[in-house]
Structure formats: C-alpha cells, structure tokens
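Structure (tokenized):
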C-alpha cells in the first residue's frame, strides 16, 4: 500500500458562488451538487466502517493497517469538512438535501451486524467514487467555466479518492470478507447509488427552475450518454468489480498523481499521528 498524504486545501469557501457555478450549465451544476450533498454523511459512514473494521482485525493485521487507515480517515474527514462548507451555500440557495436523509434512515440496518457488511458497502461506494474520479480527471473539460476554487475542490477530491481507492478493499479482505458478499452488496449499492443521485439531481434541477428546459436535457445526454459521457466510460470499470480477481489497485492512478504533483500550491500537507 502506498503512503497516503493528508492535505488541507487552500481555498476559501466562506464566500458563496453562483447557482449554476459549473460554467452556467444547470445540469452539470445539479449533478455535482447532488454528489456533494451525499458526501459529509456518506464519508462519515466510511470512516466509522474502517474504524470498526480495523478494531476487529488480529493484532498483527491491525498494526499493519493502523497508519494507512488513519491517513484514509484524515483524507475523508477533510473531504467531509470541505463539502459541508460547500453544501452550506447550497442550502442558502434553497436546495434540500433529501439524499442525506435517506442515508441516515438506512444506517441503523447495520447495527449489531457483522462488520463485514458495513465494510462491503464501503468498498462498493469507494469503487463508485474511484471510477467517477477517474472519469473527471480524464475529462477535466466537464468543469470548464467553473469558478477556479470550485474546480480545484473537485479535482483535489477526485485525486485523493483515486489515491486511497484500495484501503477499504484491503481491510475487507483482511477481515475475511468473501467475493459473494462483496458482489451482493455491490449490486444493492449500484441500485441505491443510481437512484439516489438521479433523484437528488432532479430535485436540484426543479429547485433551480431548469428541470423542463431543453438545454438541461441536452447537457444531460451529452455528459451521461455521449461517447465520452459518464455512463459510457464507467461501465467497463464498474463491470470489472464482478471479477473474482478484482482489486482497486488495477485502476490507473496516473492522472491523480499528475494533478496532485502539478498543484502543490493549492494545498499543504498535514502531519498524521
């Protein structure tokens, strides 16, 4: 496992931003806003899952994972804080976070259950964030016209998601998590993730008054279904998860490393431990 770096992003989110901050495009803004609205509570779930998972490991494995998990938690906690600030401005714009409420209603289902269930869900969602991040890093034009600080925020988040994409998977494997459980939860997570992001995006568009505009759906078709669109280019890495020999480290992280090394002025590294 490569050493993770916890970074503090040097952007100011005390000041608000336009409703259609993604280059004036209602659909792109609504989609990214939907994702952000899920992040604070979702990433807290990942943090709690990794903590619980490591606590169940034998002493030798716990010692092996302690540092990398602490750094994973450091990165996720920083993402949670940044997106909470971003989401605060969305709330001021009138957006309602229905996705977060659904996540909170589901979480008690894991109370008292084998920790590997929580870990399998975490691994599934970490794969979603990793393949979404790879798509964004390989198509930065999706953020063309975005306010520079918000473009930096999304590219930084994508890069770190790619960087720590293997941590939850490796802990799940060390806990004895098997392929069947991993796939069962991945199927469920796929249905929930696609329905949740669609519902929140539609709600955001309705709140913006753009739901019934032709330009909105033209943008949606291009960015989701086009040759370089999100659904077209994430299908193969999504499908790869079903292979018995799958490992997140098989995904190329070159673009993430390039962005981080080329934008060192945008963050400072934090000490962990």
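Design, position by position:
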């Amino acid at each position: 496992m490569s050493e993770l770096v916890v970074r503090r992003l040097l952007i100011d989110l005390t000041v608000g931003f336009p409703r259609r901050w993604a280059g004036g495009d209602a659909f792109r803004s609504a989609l990214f806003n939907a994702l952000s609205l899920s992040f604070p509570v979702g990433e807290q779930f990942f943090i709690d899952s990794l903590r619980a998972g490591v606590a169940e490991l034998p002493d030798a494995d716990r010692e092996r994972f302690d540092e990398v998990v602490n750094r994973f938690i450091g990165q996720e906690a920083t993402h949670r804080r940044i997106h909470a600030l971003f989401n605060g401005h969305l709330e001021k714009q009138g957006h309602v976070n229905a996705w977060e409420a659904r996540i909170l209603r589901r979480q008690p289902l894991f109370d008292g259950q084998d920790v590997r269930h929580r870990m399998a869900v975490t691994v599934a969602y970490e794969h979603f964030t990793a393949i979404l991040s790879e798509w964004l890093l390989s198509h930065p034009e999706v953020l063309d016209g975005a306010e520079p600080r918000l473009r930096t925020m999304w590219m930084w988040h994508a890069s770190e998601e790619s960087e720590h994409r293997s941590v939850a998977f490796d802990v799940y494997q060390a806990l004895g998590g098997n392929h069947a459980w991993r796939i069962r939860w991945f199927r469920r997570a796929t249905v929930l993730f696609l329905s949740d992001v669609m519902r929140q995006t539609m709600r955001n568009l309705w709140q913006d008054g753009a739901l019934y505009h032709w330009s909105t759906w033209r943008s949606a078709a291009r960015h989701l279904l086009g040759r370089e669109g999100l659904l077209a280019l994430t299908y193969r890495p999504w499908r790869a998860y079903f292979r018995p020999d799958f490992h997140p480290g098989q995904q190329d992280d070159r673009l993430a490393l390039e962005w981080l090394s080329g934008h060192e002025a945008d963050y400072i590294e934090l000490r962990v431990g």
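Reviewer-requested clarification: The first strand starts at residue 6 and ends at 9. The beta strands are 6-9, 267-270.
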